[in-house]
Amino acid sequence: MITRESRRRRSRAGKEYVEQAPFNMPATYEETSPQTPTFFVLFPGVDPTPWVEELGKELGISEAEGTFCNISMGQGQEKPAEAIVERYAKNGGWVMLQNCHLMSSWVPSLERLLEVVQEGAHADFRCYISAEAPGALSGPNMPESLLQSCIKVANEAPADIKSNLTRSWAEFGQERIDASSKPDDFKACLFSLCWFHSIILGRRRFGPQGWSRAYSFNTGDLVICSNVLTSYIDAADAAGLGVPWADLRYIFGEIMYGGHITDAWDRRTNNTYLAELMKPELRPEGEAKVGLELGPGFPSPDPTTLDYEGYAQYIDTKMPKESPPLFGLHPNAEIGYLTSSTANLFSTIVSLGGGGGGGGGAGDVVKATMADLLDRCPEELQMVLIDQMAEPLLAEPSQGPYVVCALQECRRMNVLLGVITKSLSDLEKGLAGTLNMTQAIEDLIAALTISEWPGRNPYSQCAWEKFSWPSKKSLLPQYADMIKRHGQLTSWTETLATPISVWLSGLFNPMAYLTSILQVTARATGSALDAMTQETHMTTYKDAHAIPPDSTFPENGAFIHGLFIEGARWPFGDEVEEPYEFGGAKVGGFLLESRLKELMPPVPVVYVKAVLVQPSWEPSAVGYLRHVDDVYEAPVFITTARGATYVFLATLKTVVPKNKWTLTGTALMMQQDD
User: 20 to 30 A from 294, CA-CA: which of 9, 104, 423, 498?
Assistant: First the structure.
């Protein structure tokens, strides 16, 4: 649909309505006046300060001349800002007030001051204001009258590679290339750097599969990296050396762009891009006319045949059609992104909308949903009996840790069931008129009306979410999930014998069970617990029911099931080449390319084995990294939101370079979104 609409707009209105041109600050300045401030809306990755400073220098306005002042607003900056505005309005000059959203209580005073000083203001007076747009759950942070009096600039970084690449390349010129002592090497590296900058900006649109957070990569990062590139290439040339690729990759990946990144897996993705794009193959070798393929169908051109304008033309004419593979992602990433965007759109519409027409109404929906949930709500687990049964087992080295895990899960389930039962009972009484309606009951009604798990709204006083597990499911799927989790605990606590395979996704704290595996193995082998970690092996058992009835626990480990994979798939049945016995389990297979439209297929039963940490493994914040060519370290998350829902590191076999799976965002998930 988006592709069809883009083509229609291009043919009817022109490409400028589809491809975003680089921002033109001089043209914006022509529309300003001493009586008309300029208001910049701040977006991630966009900093308007350099645009204003560079234009000011061209017009003779600078800090050195005493005619430009840049103030980052914060506590205690009100009086200095007011004094500068008054002085420049009288004598001429530019003032830039950054991050005014942090001073929303002071902005009305600024508005009144501007109204006063603009009468008879100096012809060279200009006021520039920047602020972030308010969040979805917060109110306006800027007076409407101030916004109406300003020229508003919303220069959000485009999501497509071509527009980003055009904007990035436009930051430089032929004179910048000519200033390098090795212009051909500099051109090739600079173009690859611009490509890198473009794809890490565009990758944001794929949500958590792209980046777990919306990092504020900006043009300043690109410009500073280009300065570093110039210095290092010139210094290497003076020393008679080649391009210092390793140094450049480290500075770009760990310091410049890496300085924005807080998630370890995102840092790995960032460094993988640089490892693939910053290497000697950028320049053609031998009789080849093109160098390294930056993306499918888009090779790095021969720098000896193109000047600055030639590269700009190359972008305009040779850039392939936008698609996820240009980012290193699978085409399914686009499907997932569009599906998620549509779901978020309709979720927002539903949350903003009122009751529908026709018979019945929202009240009938709430009553029917409440009755259904109360009818299906399981009874609390009998902790007195379970504790009595557990007492003699806690001292057994092979059972104690698993029993502790089961007890913790049962107690958390009972707390959640108690909260759900009480809130639904209060709602029933409130609707019957026997109990006063409280804010918590009102919030519960609002959640039931839009089929949302109560408490997911951070302002809700109905606290189901607080006592639950991380999830993105709507109300009824998550409620069914809770009943299934209760069923696993009921079966587990009948004898407190650990199941041959545990539905890991069905635990409140899955890491507790994984730690139990390490504890049991450490006690059995006499190893130190802090010298152990886990590794994973995919079995040939499709699900827990496929495990042979006479099977026992595998060596130094346990079976888990219920996981899904995003960004790749794992083979089943006849697809598994040469399965073999390992630790008492039948294992085999390796990572394969995803099938189209299979966004998150399940994986087989997983054999989690406790192992001793090897000296060659690198300790990190997310686990021990093996750095082995045929093992891809896959993060395991509870939900597709990734980020804070990370649980542990899984080791998956691969026969292709593991950088491929890093760029596709391959990870294991404990649950789907529906």
Answer: 9
Q: Which residues contact 139 (CB under 8 A, 6 or more apart)?
A: none
Cβ-contact 603, 563 below 8 angstroms: yes
- Residue 562 CA, chain-centre distance (Å), reads 23
Determine contact, residues 234/181, Cβ cutoff 8 Å. Answer: yes
Place of tokens 């045949």: 305
- Among residues 497, 570, 489, the alpha carbon closest in space to that of 536 is found at 570
Which residues on neighbouring strands pair with residue 580, listed in sequence order? 587
Identity of the amino acid at 642? R
317-363: per-residue pLDDT in tens?
Answer: 999 988 999 999 999 998 887 877 777 777 777 766 644 444 445 67
Residue 177: other Cβ atoms inside 10 A: 18
Q: What amino acid occupies position 121?
A: A
Q: Do residues 518 and 442 make contact, with C-beta atoms less than 8 angstroms apart?
A: no
Q: Check: CB of residue 575 under 8 Å from CB of residue 601.
A: no
Q: Are 40 and 132 in contact (CB under 8 A)?
A: no
How far is the C-alpha of 493 from the C-alpha of 491, rounded, in Å? 6
Contacts of 410 (CB under 8 A, 6+ apart): 381, 383, 386, 489, 493
302 phi, psi to nearest 5 deg: -75, 115
**Cβ partners under 8 Å of residue 551, min gap 6:** 500, 584
Q: Mind listing the pLDDT tens digit for each residue in 455-504?
A: 998 889 998 999 999 999 999 999 999 999 999 999 999 999 999 999 99
Fold for domain 528-674? Hypothetical upf0131 protein ytfp (3.10.490)
Closest Cα to residue 602, out of 541, 519, 514? 541
Query: What 8-state DSSP symbol labels residue 657?
Result: -
State the virtual CA torsion across 568, 574, 579, 585 in degrees, nearest 10.
80
CA distance 484 to 464: 17
SS3 306: coil
Instruction: For residues 558-573, give the mean pLDDT.
Output: 96
Q: Which residues contact 191 (CB under 8 A, 6 or more apart)?
A: 169, 300, 301, 303, 311
Phi, psi angle pair for 637, to nearest 5°: -115, 155
pTM given for the model: 0.85
Rounded (10°) CA dihedral 463, 466, 467, 473: 90
Q: What are phi and psi of 293, to 5 degrees?
A: -80, 110
- Domain range 21-153, its CATH number among 2.40.50.140, 3.40.309.10, 3.40.50.300, 3.30.70.270: 3.40.50.300
CA distances from 145 to 37, 114, 115, 142, 482 (A): 12, 12, 11, 9, 50
| CA atoms in the 13 A half-sphere facing the CB of 165 | 26
Q: In 3-state terms, what secondary structure has residue 403?
A: helix
State the Cα–Cα distance between residues 645 and 252, nearest whole angstrom. Answer: 28
| Contact assessment for residue 594 and residue 645, using Cβ atoms and an 8 Å cutoff | no
- CATH level 2 (architecture), domain 161-329: Orthogonal Bundle (1.10)
Q: Return the closest-CA partner of residue 529 out of 543, 507, 510, 514.
A: 514
Going from N- to C-terminal start, the domains of the chain cover 21-153, 161-329, 360-498, 528-674
Contact 448, 367 (CB under 8 A): no
- Phi, psi dihedral angles at 580 (to 5 degrees): -145, 160
- Contacts of residue 100, defined as CB under 8 A and 6 or more positions apart, other chains included, come to 73, 107, 110, 129, 130, 131, 142
Residues 94, 68: contact at Cβ < 8 Å?
A: yes
Q: What's the CA gap between 70 and 86, in Å, rounded?
A: 15
- Average pLDDT along the chain: 91
Burial of 618 (0-12, 13-18, 19+ CB in 10 A): exposed
